[in-house]
Each structure stands twice: as C-alpha cells, then as structure tokens.
Amino acid sequence: MMSADLKKILLVDDNQLFLKILSQAFKKSGIECLTAESGREALDLLKTVTPDAILSDYEMPEMNGIEFRQHLMEDVELNNIPFVFLTHVTDKKLMIEGLKLEAIDYVTKDTPVNVIVSKLNNLLYAVYKQQEQSKQELKKAAEALNVRSVPNKVPEIKGFEINFWHQSYQDIPGGDFIDFIQVNDRYSFIVLGDIMGKRWKAWFFTFSFLSYVRAAIRFGILDHDYSVSSILKKVNNVICLDDILKDILSSLSLLMIDNQTQEISYSGAGDLPLLHYESKTGKFKKISSDGLLLGLFSDGNYTDKNVHLEKDDQLFIFTDGMIDFSDVTGKKSDYNFFAEELEPYVNKKYSFDDIKTNLFKPAIATRVDDCSIINIYKTS
Q1: Residue-wise over 23-53: b if at least 16 C-beta within 10 A, else e?
Q2: Domains of the chain by range and CATH?
Q3: 3-state secondary structure at position 224
Q4: Which among 149, 251, 131 is positioned nearest to 201, based on CA atoms?
Q5: How, if at all, do strands 83-87 and 53-57 pair?
Q6: When you count CB atoms within 10 A of the terminal residue's CB, does the N or C end of the chain come out lower?
Q7: 240, 292 in Cβ contact below 8 A?
Q8: CA-wise closest residue to 369 among 207, 195, 132, 249
Q9: How far apart are the first and last CA of the chain?
Q10: Model pTM score
C-alpha cells in the first residue's frame, strides 16, 4: 500500500535499543530510516535531509517531543512533513496538545513493533493520497484558469538577448514566478521570484505577488520613479500589510534595463547572488543584494546596484532550485558547484539552447524544487 514516493522516515528517540529495533523493522518493510537520539540532533540532521515523515518520542531530555515539534512548526521548509508522536504517555491533555501542533497521531510504545510499522504505513498512505488528489486538482485548476506565473515568450530588447528556462518540480505548478514587463520604449523590467516554503501550495500565492510587483512598477514609472529598490520597498510594504500575504515570504530579483543607456539596475530581496560572466576575463563575478525577503520586515533594506555588461558578457539570475539537488546523503545546496558547471558553456560560442540541453535538462532527476533561470546576453 505504501506509495513508491515514500522512501525515508526520520526516527527520533533517546532510547538507543528501541531506536535500533524500530529502525530495523521499518527497513525490513522497505523504508529507509534516518535516526536521531535527541530533538537537537534531529534538527541538525534536517538541515541537510528532508524525510517523508517523522516519528518522534515525546519523553526526551533537553528538548521533548512537543518542543521539537514546535521548532518544526516554525520552519516553513519542515512544518508540512507528516509527524507522529511515539510515547509511553497516554495523558489525553498531552495528546490534545500534540494534535494541536498538527501531528497526524500518537502511537504508544507498548504497541507491537509490526503494528507500529503497519499503522504508520497506513497513515502515510492516506496523507499521500490526499496530497496527490490536491496536486491533481491544482493541475486542473491551472489548466482551467489558463493563468500562468511564467511567460510564454521573452521580450526583444535592443542590444540584448534574453532567454529563460523553467521546470516545475514533479510537473506541479510551484512557487517560482517570472515576468518581463516593457513599460515603454525605454525601460524594460525583469522579475524572478520564489515563494518560500508552502511546497506545491505556493503556486496560489504567485499571482498576488506578481500583481503587486506589476502595479508597483507601473505606478513607479507614472511617478517618474526609476529606482528598482524603491519599487521593491513599495511591494514589501503592501505585502507586510496584506492580511493574507503577511506571513508568506518570497525572494525577488528585480532588474530594469535602460534601452537608451544600455545599463541595468538591480535590486534583490533575499535572492541568490547574480552571476556576471565577463567575456574579457572568461570568469564569473557575483553580484549580491542586501535586501531581505519580501514580507519579512517592513524595512527590507533594499538598495540599487548598477550592472554594466560589455559586448558578449552574460548575466544569470536564478532561484535556489538551480543549486539544490539530492544524492544518497540527502538534499544539498551548492552555489559554487553550479557556477563551475556553468562556466565551460559560457566560454564557448553563445547558445542558451546548448546550456539547457546539456546542463539543465539532464539534471532534472536530482532536482528537489522548482528550477528557474534567466539569461541576459549583451549582443552589442
């Protein structure tokens, strides 16, 4: 009955013998088991690995199961992992407290091990089926509404060639959003954002963020405000006041190309450093922003940076899905490794199609998130 996608469970218990017995039982049923002997150890492990479910003891020294669960609930990347308490305690008030933290269930330690395995199997299968149904409904909604958070085509800007690549994780509409906005003959804007956490539910929030960004750009131009940091500040202020979005965080890279001066202005909100390929040196240079994630604080500390591209220079803007990957040890992020992989392709005669075909697409199997990247190539 277990879903083929369910492969890994994290077991947390300070009783080494019980942990070993339970771990072996789950492994015999075909489930990979990660183990931790304390909540602290589990939190450290979760920095690099994302299990499909967590089964945690309640009575542990230093940090009990309730406190461990509270830490998970505060992390947008971890609070959606199915969680089950494992305990000797049968206190109803304690059980209610745990269930208020969105735990799936309690399992007492005097339950036979094979029954614990079977029960968790059934619970997780039910969660899996519900998630699959929701994902299918999300796909149908996206198709029926015919709305997109990623454009169909790139703009034509004199002196530049713009390309992008986007791949939704598991083909489910996700939290990455892209837009190209040409407000007049002189100014063009490039938008790349990523809703933090929320997994496949993030798609619902992309349109609200895009709407605010588009409106801020339009109103900024009407007010003769050409500062990308000022636009980001306006977007952030509105999001922080929005009752629905105020707890939703997003990264954002915002660039403005001045067709007249051929200069690029950039401001970022919690985004990854841009990669500027300098054709004269054949090397990459990082361009980092100081701004905080949209929705985090009303003062996001956004600043303007000027980016000058010489002929044949390139600029890469991307979300963290491009640098995140999984291997036998779990989820990893490696910005420098991605830059090193990209460098041989930009040293050749320019072809974004070659980069997509030879570098991005073959790596889809190891990706753990939506992937989005925008490439700006200076043609003259």
Answers
A1: bebbeeeebebbbbbbbeebbebbeeeebbb
A2: 8-143 (3.40.50.2300), 160-378 (3.60.40.10)
A3: coil
A4: 131
A5: parallel
A6: C
A7: no
A8: 195
A9: 59
A10: 0.70
